[in-house]
Amino acid sequence: MQRPSTRVMLGLGAIVIVAVAIWAYSEFSPPSLTGAWSNEAPENRIDFTFNPDGSGTMTIGSSRLDYRYTFDRTKRPAWLDLNAAPNGEPVTIRAIAEFAPGGKLKIRLPPTRAFGIRPTEFVDNDIENTILLKRDESAS
Question: In the prediction, which pLDDT does 26 show?
Answer without folding.
Answer: 44
